[in-house]
Write a structure and sequence with these properties.
heterodimer, A: 170 residues, Four Helix Bundle (Hemerythrin (Met), subunit A), globular, B: 402 residues, 2 domains, two-stranded antiparallel sheet, 2 strands
Chain lengths: 170, 402
């Protein structure tokens, strides 16, 4: 029963992602990608990680999806302009090589990571324990991530803002 | 002298659970949880469906009275059958889909919106032991379900293949994203003080009485009052209610992303708006107004779910009152209000809550100092930010016609 459910989640997640790549309509692709993200969060829920699942939905479905949609709407010129054929043979070969290298690294990581044989029945972590861990042992990592995200936000604001004085000077 | 009855044991208090057990005891034990969940779903849909019908009528009646006209009064006594007439009219209307529309997304948008609005009801504690799903991260679940609203609005606007719809959807998204931030920040102090993300835990943290009569609800603390007001203003904007109803703005912006919707799909959007408003009010009751707790020890004989209902309906009436009395904001005023006023205030409120949490042990004259410092932390930024935001605009002088 559990295995069946797991396979179903994986099929929906991967199927949505694969269809997103195959579709020509970018908006449809983005929406399918969001479906795939929801599938990942369902997987977290299935694994008993409530907090991570809800955070995944809040961040990806609520926020990242909007960024992607805005980016697609603001950059797309016409449905026919999107070229899917590579410009030259060398570009196609380098694209395949780069993608193959990434696949190789991922496969190496998946296959050769030593996993404990039987999944240990870990203690179910409550949100409180997660918070204590994050604020205690991993406080430095949390602060650094926060700093990086703040820098990214500030960068976006600087790029987006049009300072009238700066334009006058030019 | 009779011994005081524990309010948790009174007959009315236990009635909903007794009723549930009566129904689900016919199911075999392994399926009992499923039957319980199904019954909770049916109860939520029935209660909030009826509340939706009553709210539409109450809103039209109250708006009518405020504007010095009778409101609907032709269907049944006092117009009481108006919701039924509205329902029949809306459901029998032709469903028109534009030829160039993206049919699947055009259909999915209202369904997604309504589904997410209904799912939000799952974690609200309606009374003592009356919570459909008691999640460890209940508050987070509530707001992560609400996150799909933006997606549905975008789907509606884009799939209609209508430039007005698309522009309105982008405008609605700008509003929803702007107000999501103060909404999320306003409840963080509650989690900080209660030390839990579970809705039942937050209600439990507001039980008990100070000095034997004053309820220890979060709204009666300086940070709680500020958080409650920020929450309610953001909730108004998140549920597209007046004065933040720019996404629709029937009279000026041809109903925005709803332009190409008619019949049943339009009803879905309409229902989702009211369900969202009700769910956010229910969350406000849970987070700030003490959930199902009675306001005075002497009033505890009234069952807990009745108290929840009274508080919920008062908040909803407040929503209607605001709609009747406030003019609509302009788009730039709307976003400026969120980013330059509500977000800074919500961030400062975090500091106030941190101070409140650190000064937990203070007592005697220090208690007055604790309240004083917290109040200063709330009021001074409010006044300063408000003055800066309205500089050159207020106070206005009105010249009355003589």
């Amino acid at each position: 029963m559990n295995a069946l459910f797991l396979i179903l989640i994986a099929l929906v997640t991967l199927g949505a992602a694969a269809t997103a790549m195959a579709l020509r309509n970018l908006i449809h692709s983005v929406l399918l990608l969001i479906g795939s993200w929801i599938g990942v969060s369902v997987f977290y829920l299935f694994a008993g990680a409530e907090f991570v699942a809800f955070a995944q939905v809040l961040v990806y479905v609520g926020a990242v999806s909007m960024v992607v949609l805005f980016a697609v709407l603001l950059t797309r010129r016409s449905r026919l302009d999107i070229s899917v054929t590579p410009d030259s043979l060398s570009r196609a070969i380098s694209a395949v090589l780069a993608a193959g290298a990434v696949l190789g690294v991922l496969l190496y990581g998946i296959v050769f990571t030593p996993l404990p044989g039987a999944a240990p029945k870990g203690p179910s972590a409550t949100v409180k324990q997660l918070g204590v861990e994050l604020m205690g042992d991993h406080a430095a990592a949390l602060l650094i991530i926060g700093l990086i995200l703040t820098v990214a936000t500030l960068g976006a604001v600087v790029i987006a803002s049009n300072d009238p004085k700066a334009e006058d000077r030019q | 002298m009779t011994a005081p009855i524990n309010p948790a044991d009174s007959l009315l208090e236990r009635a909903p659970q007794a009723l549930r057990d009566l129904v689900t005891s016919h199911f075999p034990q392994p399926w009992r949880w499923f039957a319980n969940g199904l019954l909770a779903d049916v109860a939520i849909l029935a209660v909030f469906g009826l509340l939706f019908a009553a709210l539409t009528l109450a809103e039209r009646k109250i708006l009518g009275r405020v504007q010095n006209r009778p409101g609907p009064n032709r269907t049944g006594p006092f117009g009481l059958l108006q919701p039924i007439a509205d329902g029949i009219k809306m459901l029998s209307k032709e469903d028109i889909v534009p030829r160039d529309a993206d049919h699947l997304l055009h259909f999915l948008a209202p369904v997604t919106l309504l589904a997410s609005a209904i799912m939000a009801f799952a974690v609200i504690p309606y009374g003592r032991n009356l919570v459909p799903v008691d999640l460890d991260a209940g508050v987070l679940y509530f707001f992560c379900v609400g996150a799909t609203t933006e997606l549905a609005v975008f789907m509606a606007g884009w799939s209609s293949h209508n430039k007005y719809s698309l522009l309105a959807a982008m405008r609605a998204l700008a509003q929803l994203i702007s107000y999501e931030l103060p909404l999320l920040l306003s409840w963080v102090p509650v989690v900080m003080i209660s030390g839990t993300l579970s809705t039942t835990g937050i209600v439990a943290a507001q039980s008990g009485w100070r000095w034997g009569w004053m309820p220890t609800w979060h709204v009666f603390t300086p940070w709680g009052l500020a958080g409650f007001i920020i929450f309610m203003v953001s909730a108004l904007a998140e549920s597209n209610r007046s004065p933040f109803d720019l996404p629709e703005a029937e009279s000026e912006l041809i109903a925005g992303h709803l332009t190409e919707y008619s019949g049943c799909k339009y009803v879905f959007f309409f229902m989702a708006e009211y369900f969202g408003m009700t769910a956010l009010s229910g969350m406000a009751v849970t987070l700030f107004l003490g959930g199902w707790h009675a306001p005075l020890p002497a009033l505890e004989f009234i069952p807990s779910y009745a108290w929840f209902g009274i508080k919920l309906i008062s908040l909803l009436m407040g929503f209607i009152w605001i709609r009747a009395t406030f003019p609509r904001l302009r788009m730039d005023q709307l976003t400026r209000f969120a980013w330059k006023f509500l977000v800074p205030l919500a961030l400062i409120n975090l500091a106030t809550a941190a101070f409140w949490s650190l000064s937990f042990g203070w007592s005697g004259p220090m208690l007055a100092a604790r309240c004083g410092v917290a109040l200063v932390l709330v009021i001074v930024p409010f006044v300063l930010l408000g003055r800066r935001l309205t500089a050159g605009l207020a106070p206005r002088s009105y010249a009355y016609a003589t």
